Amino acid sequence: MKKRIYIYEMDCYKSASEEQLQKMRIKPERYFNLEGLPSEELAEKLEEFIWERGKMLAPSSMASEVTYYNNIREFLSDRKIQSLDAREEEKIIRMLKGWMLEKGYALSSKKYRPAYDKVGIETPNIVKHMKKFLKFLEEEDDRDEQEKDIWTLKNFDFPIHGNPIKNTETLNFTGIVQPDIREEVKKVIFMHLKYAPLGTIHSEMIAVKRFSKFLKQKYPNIKSLQDLERMHIEEYLIYLKTEVHERKNYRSDLCALRRVIEDVGNLYERQCMSKLFLSNDFPSTPRHVFKFYSDAEIKRLNEHIFKMDEQICRALIIHQLLGTRISDTLTLKTDCLSMRNNRYFIRIDQVKSVTYEKSISEEVAQLIMKAIDYTKERYGETTYIFAKKDDPTRPYQYSMIQNQIMKMIRQEDIRDDNGEFLKFGTHIFRHCYGKKLTEMHVGDWMIAKLLGHTSIYSVHHYRKIGNKLMADETRAAREKMDMILLDIIEGWDDYEI
How many CB atoms lie within 10 A of CB 407? Predict the structure, then answer.
């Protein structure tokens, strides 16, 4: 076993580009010291961990990790810890935090996030690094995925109804502190996972974890959901109103909790569990407040969107022209265009509901074709038009789009009509699209069709925010929407979208 592992010996350093090496702030002679650890076993595991990290990270990142490693090495030596068990993570982290307090290390840090103009609370790097090491120590779990407390979704042999623009790889049940309740919920979630969207599953998980926390505080004797009585639900409703302030309305949260509890009752043939909730337990549906941009705000934002990466720019302009949900825009397929009766049509495979087609102008079709050509030139044949750079089999991730736009708004000082920083949400573009259609007296059913709705239920929200302008037909409405943005694009003479 080596006593010292130098940065220059690692795979990441040997394969690094000149640019990567220049970014290194620490000399390549810097090393990980394996001497003086409490046991040979621990030293061997740490050595394996360091070499493995050296295959994954850039040399500058490995050089930074020397500092965190030295902290952990000192902790292990001071506490004379001979071995570590990944199953005792909670206990180990608690010991580490106690040692950090003794040494004067902060247990949290504040980090300003300029993209959101917020200060976030960060876990110390020492703790993060220890958790990574414990994760590395985990023995391969050969149990069925359903038996584990953390599910890796790709290990299931049935399709998961996830959103391609969001990166969800696992479901974590460890936040449900009661073992029996955890097992009951796992059975229900496994059943729901076969047919329900992953977003619905997440809502159920959040709701159950919040309820589990409540039971631990108020009713620690409750071990199973089958032990619940009406009084526990009533107490929980009071708890949400008086002690929890994460959101204003818990209707969706309570609906998700009821689904899980009732399905536990169905699984265990406890029909009485379907009577734990009453209809008046649920707050009224919160009133929709539709946000939209003025034409001037859209113009200000698009002037800067134009300066972004050309394919991201295309994605955002196409998104506005189509009036789709962002998930539907980012998952447009390379074969989505067709032509009938000298008109272009686009097929939109909605992540949320159905597949539908709608007519588009030739200008919009040409813009989409440019986006397709861009992707083919760089990645060959792909499923999605807006392919992820490091994994072209997947579409752009929404978080990437959002972070870049929010950062740009701050850097470029983009303001709304009231002088405040412009609020950004891709769904606002969809609201603007719907608003323009109502302003042009397009019928409810046609608006629903153009927006990809399966009913006219939501259309009245768009009518509430629209001024009445004159128009005769749907085609005119579509072309009006196209021109609003194409007029902006026309001024971009030096740049071919």
Answer: 14
